Amino acid sequence: MESNDKFQDECGVFGVYGSNDAAALTALGLHALQHRGQEAAGIVSYDGEKFYSHRELGLVGEIFDEKQIIDTLPGNSAIGHVRYSTSGGTALRNVQPLYADYSFGGLALAHNGNLTNANQLHKELVNKGSLFQSTSDTEVFQHLIATSSEDRLLDRFIDTFKAVEGAYSLVALSRRKLIGARDPFGVRPLALGSLGETWIITSETCALDIIGADFVRDVEPGEIIIVDEDGLHSYKPFLAVHKRSCIFEYIYFARPDSFVDGRNVYEVRKAIGAELADESLINADMVIPIPDSGVPAAIGFAQRSKLPFELGLIRNHYVGRTFIEPTDEIRHLGVKLKHNANKQRLEGQKIILVDDSIVRGTTSRKIVEMVRQAGAREVHMRISSPPTINPCFYGIDTPDRDQLLAAQFDVEGIRKQIQADTLSFISIDGLYRAMGETNRDNDLPQFCDACFTGEYPIPLSDQEKGQSNTQMSFLAGLK
Amino acid sequence: MESNDKFQDECGVFGVYGSNDAAALTALGLHALQHRGQEAAGIVSYDGEKFYSHRELGLVGEIFDEKQIIDTLPGNSAIGHVRYSTSGGTALRNVQPLYADYSFGGLALAHNGNLTNANQLHKELVNKGSLFQSTSDTEVFQHLIATSSEDRLLDRFIDTFKAVEGAYSLVALSRRKLIGARDPFGVRPLALGSLGETWIITSETCALDIIGADFVRDVEPGEIIIVDEDGLHSYKPFLAVHKRSCIFEYIYFARPDSFVDGRNVYEVRKAIGAELADESLINADMVIPIPDSGVPAAIGFAQRSKLPFELGLIRNHYVGRTFIEPTDEIRHLGVKLKHNANKQRLEGQKIILVDDSIVRGTTSRKIVEMVRQAGAREVHMRISSPPTINPCFYGIDTPDRDQLLAAQFDVEGIRKQIQADTLSFISIDGLYRAMGETNRDNDLPQFCDACFTGEYPIPLSDQEKGQSNTQMSFLAGLK
Amino acid sequence: MESNDKFQDECGVFGVYGSNDAAALTALGLHALQHRGQEAAGIVSYDGEKFYSHRELGLVGEIFDEKQIIDTLPGNSAIGHVRYSTSGGTALRNVQPLYADYSFGGLALAHNGNLTNANQLHKELVNKGSLFQSTSDTEVFQHLIATSSEDRLLDRFIDTFKAVEGAYSLVALSRRKLIGARDPFGVRPLALGSLGETWIITSETCALDIIGADFVRDVEPGEIIIVDEDGLHSYKPFLAVHKRSCIFEYIYFARPDSFVDGRNVYEVRKAIGAELADESLINADMVIPIPDSGVPAAIGFAQRSKLPFELGLIRNHYVGRTFIEPTDEIRHLGVKLKHNANKQRLEGQKIILVDDSIVRGTTSRKIVEMVRQAGAREVHMRISSPPTINPCFYGIDTPDRDQLLAAQFDVEGIRKQIQADTLSFISIDGLYRAMGETNRDNDLPQFCDACFTGEYPIPLSDQEKGQSNTQMSFLAGLK
Amino acid sequence: MESNDKFQDECGVFGVYGSNDAAALTALGLHALQHRGQEAAGIVSYDGEKFYSHRELGLVGEIFDEKQIIDTLPGNSAIGHVRYSTSGGTALRNVQPLYADYSFGGLALAHNGNLTNANQLHKELVNKGSLFQSTSDTEVFQHLIATSSEDRLLDRFIDTFKAVEGAYSLVALSRRKLIGARDPFGVRPLALGSLGETWIITSETCALDIIGADFVRDVEPGEIIIVDEDGLHSYKPFLAVHKRSCIFEYIYFARPDSFVDGRNVYEVRKAIGAELADESLINADMVIPIPDSGVPAAIGFAQRSKLPFELGLIRNHYVGRTFIEPTDEIRHLGVKLKHNANKQRLEGQKIILVDDSIVRGTTSRKIVEMVRQAGAREVHMRISSPPTINPCFYGIDTPDRDQLLAAQFDVEGIRKQIQADTLSFISIDGLYRAMGETNRDNDLPQFCDACFTGEYPIPLSDQEKGQSNTQMSFLAGLK
């Protein structure tokens, strides 16, 4: 009934070099990255002779919960991946890391992001005789590496990165090396950690904490890191470009306890809440978060406004993605699968609801209605992101433009749709202030904020050539 | 690694009479009661001719997520059950509701609670020729009903309730009646609701909210409610006893948005937090809940003490019950599967941690250590229940006495075990004050608080006769 | 498409006392009895302390193919069962052996046969307070044993056998005894074997051969055998009745290499073929069996008639029970899932087809047509049983009377239906001669041949009282 | 315990062009070819827009038994494959037909046979940048087709066939064409059939019979057949070579009702039996086949020798591939999972046992011993093939040379191993006579008989270059 009315991160990656427990550490790391993708998970390890692969649909804690499974992944290096599926089904063949044998030996690859010229590259590769198993970006990486005329693995990667456009933070594992790389704009996060002699590359720092590893530094935009028996090597084959990491990671995707490019996510969210209070405080009895994503901003809002912070909505964490297809009668009941209003607390009150974003608006409208039925006298909605007007093409699953409420209506129009008494979004500059900037540098923005502003830093080649919907395969069901 | 170091509620029940969507409503109700049992769920419906049963291991939202499943449960009355397994495995035959054919027709039964003379009754029934499929309490109910010499179903139930001792809140479904009953002390909760012409009986009121039903009243201790085509009937076959409902439902088991016997759970928890602040405030920089169960009390504590409420610990909701069996090396890392400290927030701070209880103490110790490693300067633990010294025999899964930390040590001893700088539990009278009482009436206590005081209101016959460990079956694996 | 147009045996039983490999021997024995039931199989063992049970839907070789499974069934006594389901689905709760705890300890039970007063007994037991899990005969045995007022297990069994009517060959396992029993008429087979110090009870002797055990003797009609640490005991609590074992076991059910009540099945089938040749030889080029069941009679027919025996029909052993639901176009193709005509061999020939029985006639008609399309000039059908006019109520799955072709038509009518050039069935006396008798003793027939003659030796109480279709349970799907 | 001590055919293929029921016909055809591979099956169909694929481990009748599955395979052309796995496990990715997208569109491919230079080609292709998913021959075909510089599909196939060495009978499906091709020596069978306007290509003619289709002709060695909307086209791009189809298809692999290259398999087997009687008749009481494969030759032997044909061994068709791992005690019992001696028939008799081949000899020895224990006085083994001395590299699964009993011992030595009283194999010339030839033409043998003679018609390049055991992948478990 209630779909997850949010932008969705698509993936998380994790890699380990130099530990007898490489696969176990990877499983733990992926568990900490589970919020970045819940559809499937996989690990590939290497033991000096062979690569070992285990990939499955499901949660990390279900797939890798037994010693026997971990024992099928020997070796002291490993990489792993969690995946969020953008469409209905996920075929197992698309679950990363993807492995292939090359002339130089085996290589496993896992990435977080999205290529914006994948279709074009796919077509060129097929014309040269490459056979694809899927239409995934990752396989484009594989074929580019395979058909590169370079000898050294590093040079094959550089060749490949020169051909691709888009956002990618990837980890790869060859017979002798763990590779980590981040696209030149650094759109998706990637961090470097260590645990004694062991090197770790991960999408977020919370995956370092779970295993007690130390955060070393963020991987830089455009940087290729190679770890081998001689230690860590860093390569920067691209001309320096202006960094444009995704600002939405701070608003919603990343875990509050992670540090992304030097900023603590929880503190940023609280700061946004405080800015929001400065911008749009209204007379009210209390501040209520829409759990769980609205909680840090609501705390920030409450502290700044000196209004009490209260749990007026209770979230049921057991909700799966779907539930019974109801009859019309049931549909009219307005079933509350995910959130319930805490009546006693709300009755007769003027409340400020804090959420992180409004996407389609269906959930917001439902919650406003629920809160009113519980007796709230006034309902003021405050949103800790600017209006989301544009889809993302850099690895985030967003609805098409015509389904984004903010692309159809102005703030007053949105307010009417969700039937709140008042509605405010954080301003773009307020958001940048919460990030610690004076304001947005409109000439050279400090972050990728295309979903708010429409300014896409990386070309959208497939889109522009109308190739994003080209038929990529004649096999039904191939994704 | 981290087991759930809590007392565990064992079951939730739900029943519907008079709706074309009886099974769908029951599925939704059970989903709202999911926190009362996550191992298995079942529904039995009746369509005027036949009973239909679907029971499975797993979460409600996984078992009953498809219209096809709901369509196998036709009829306008239904009962359902969610179950928490007390031991490793749950055989499907133990998943409730249990159904049987009797001389008077079919009857399905589901209960929440525990009989304290079940073993004795089991033995007597087997001696008279009854064949048991399990050693569950519910089957004792079934055989007592079957062998009662009474004609009327109501009288068979009364016969049965006169034979059993213990705590039970049950729902049952016969060909013409929906039955709800609560033991004479009213230990476990049971509430009555309505949705138009439809009657609903449920363990908690949050299961009324999910389907938009109205709360009518609590089922009274010792009351038998029968709903049939003539409407609602109430019977009270027992001499009035003093009500002793479980005080721990308010502390931890029930959902914060539920009303139990007239009190809102969230408000009680906040009140306990406030009392706790009154009793044991200390100089500190902030109040931090151990999520999720410590949140309401922490809010109450923070509001009373005027200290800021902060998320210093982040919970990973994707944790399953188990995870990979780690190597020794990994075990030494102190893996943080469920909670992670939010470093930036804690560094150099004096913090008050609020949790609902300390059972074995393993989790508390781990969290104190985690918080210190994150840089906290002082760690003060505040617990929103008195020390839990005694096991429960009334339907709650508790460790044996010798595993309860508070049964081994006094408060200072516990503090040393968990290595906090200071530790305070709410006092018994503080707890009763938070419940709205002046204090505990030691002659006639208002609640069952045996886990704190050792005063068990209902006899523990099997325990006393040493029969609780008698071999109940010669079949290996029968539970 | 082609269902199995045969009478179907419903079960096989096997028991072992006194071997360290009791469960493994039972699995092997059940594998040899697989032709008696392919839907499900189960084993219960006892190790001196506990009973262990493993039951599953599927073939023995699939269920018990791993050492780990056998290892869950420790002990030196065991019983097992294979089951053929009479209707669409088999619920696991009906898979035998059934186990229960009684006042005297545990008892597991498995039987082959059918009670003709089960419904009446079921009703009486429910009225006295017994709760049934199924409507199976075996559970009637269980409740009668449980509610017997006798002390000794043997006396409880005698009590039980005095109450039941019908055909049964059963094995049971208590804490100290292996029990085998055969109904007073000895309808279904049961044999006793030994392997060193180990005693074995089995439906057929082929299950002795598979483990290299010796055949000792048949269990006698009305005999109860008890094996315990003092050795073998035999009890005959019933007045002697005239033995009436099932003659169809020789025609079709039993495996050709088994000895049933002293006769080798293969030799009987060949003898029937020879008698059939004497009774109905016709000028032809060759004798062709309908494989596999028609082969032994066809060999006997060919040897007696001196016509060549040829494989004119090839059977595909990979056929499952069902296959794709075809379109009309495909249905018109006359798909040959199970048998194919061997064209080269049949073209222009006059052939005698030998089969064991004609039930609905659908397969016979299809095969005659197939053989003609392959070019056969004349098709003469010879059947090694008399016409099957009556259903069986003693443990064989037969269609209702109105679906038995021979109940609707005389021989000439059947011939027209199946479109053979000529058709002959063995005569009743010819059949008895093949069994080594002079003829059928019409006053006191030597075998149960009710399916041919309508003379049922055991009363059909439920049938006569119209109770066979009484609703036994209000639970949909309970069988 | 008893493994299948036989040479094993590895695959069967089937293709349909021009039927609304293409997938259903393919499922039925594969069912008729099930004896050629029981591990897995797959179908790919094309509906004018998309290709549809369904592949699974298991039997055809289990995989494609539901209309819903067939309905996922729309279109009026389809190809299918059944697979026998040469090693322990079969990964789904190896189950054919294999599909890929090429520059010219989609193409699905299924083949029966084995390439003898696959490893060499694999290595060359990887060096040029091709990424392999498996080490299967079929994928070599795919990459050769993909990297061919030709434009037309036919020319890409011709290119491919010029590169490969070995035995192959394949079917392929493109957007406009059904392709069938047989290697220049015609080692594995391939036949052409029609059903009205529908064309069919199949490994064996029994798959035409099952759907009532007509046999048109065999596909010729070296012939490429293309069926498209203009009808049937035949291409013969190779210089004529001398046909050398596999003689073992007649002895064991093909179904008795099939015609292979013009000969009826059942009649050939009977003729071998007759020749064998001419060559090695001995005084005996009866002829007994080792079922099922020995039956036709035993019938031929019995007819020629005028000895009675008897079922002295009963086969249990329910045997799976494996069974319980027995204890030593059980192993000593000489468990008879697959065959049992029919004691009554054998006791005191002089018998001639007829089987098709002796591979490792384990089964033969076991059966001779079993027959003796059943009381046979003399046991004379007659084999309807010459001694199998050499492994096959053309698509048949054979043990290594050192496991072939006939490669270690002469006939007298084999006799001692299996402990028969006498032993004879058919002579090479006797075998050729049974095939209708005067004798073997040693200069230009009429068939491939390398397993008997060691004369391999097609080069064994990988073998000779020692490349057959080269590591083809660094991924553990990749096959």
Number of helices of chain A: 18
Strand content of chain A: 25-35%
Mean pLDDT of chain A: 92
Oligomer: homotetramer
User: What is the 3D shape of chain A?
Assistant: globular
Question: Helix coverage percent of residues of chain A?
Answer: 25-40%
Unreliable segments of 5+ consecutive residues of chain A: none
- Roughly how many Å is the radius of gyration of chain A? 23 Å
Main beta sheet strand tally, sense and closure of chain A = 7 strands, antiparallel
| Count of distinct structural domains of chain A | 2
Terminal Cα span of chain A: 26 Å
| Interface with most residues | A-B, 68 and 68 residues
CATH class of the largest domain in chain A: Alpha Beta
Question: Could you give a short description of this structure?
Answer:
4 copies of one chain form a homotetramer. The first copy, chain A, has 18 helices and 25 strands.
List the helices and strands and how they pair.
The structure is a homotetramer of 479-residue chains.
Chain A: E1 8-9, E2 11-17, H1 22-32, E3 40-46, E4 51-57, H2 60-63, H3 67-71, E5 77-83, E6 98-102, E7 105-115, H4 118-127, H5 137-147, H6 153-163, E8 166-174, E9 178-182, E10 191-195, E11 198-202, H7 206-209, E12 214-218, E13 224-228, E14 231-235, E15 245-246, H8 248-253, E16 259-260, E17 263-264, H9 265-280, E18 286-289, H10 295-305, E19 313-315, H11 328-332, E20 339-341, H12 343-346, E21 350-355, H13 362-373, E22 378-383, E23 396-397, H14 405-408, H15 411-418, E24 422-425, H16 428-434, E25 447-448, H17 450-453, H18 461-464
Parallel strand pairs in A: 15-25, 18-21, 21-22, 22-24
Antiparallel strand pairs in A: 1-23, 2-5, 2-11, 3-4, 3-5, 6-7, 7-8, 8-9, 9-13, 10-11, 10-12, 13-14, 16-17, 19-20
Helix pairs in contact in A: 4-5, 5-6, 9-10, 9-16
